[in-house]
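Hey team,

Filing this mostly as a record. A colleague (T.K.) asked me to run one chain through the structure pipeline before their review meeting, and I want the input and output archived in the tracker in case anyone asks later how it was produced. No errors, nothing strange. Just documentation.

Input sequence:
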Amino acid sequence: QSNVCLTSWRIKVMDGNTAIYVEGKRKDLKDLHWHSNAVVERIARNQVKTSSGSVYLLQGNIDSASMRKEGFPYRFIKRFMYGFSKKWKEYVEEFLAERRR
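Output structure:
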């Protein structure tokens, strides 16, 4: 299973506010815009696994400007500024619950 490397990455929310996925540019495909399936597991701060089993390598910091534009609260973005922390699931759960209200 090969790793997919994303630059200019950001977090997006699945329809129905049930999960998150990552989106960014794929270096190996001439900066093609790419998005993952639902993120289900953190392997490392900059590595996540998705529901399809793919591993995403997140290069650099999160694209906070585009996430702000899409209405993500700053305190949520800040928690992912340098990747996925060990408490990422808690942060996501809390965030999605707020959105579902």
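Quick notes for T.K.: The mean pLDDT is 95. The helical segments are 64-69, 74-79, 88-100.
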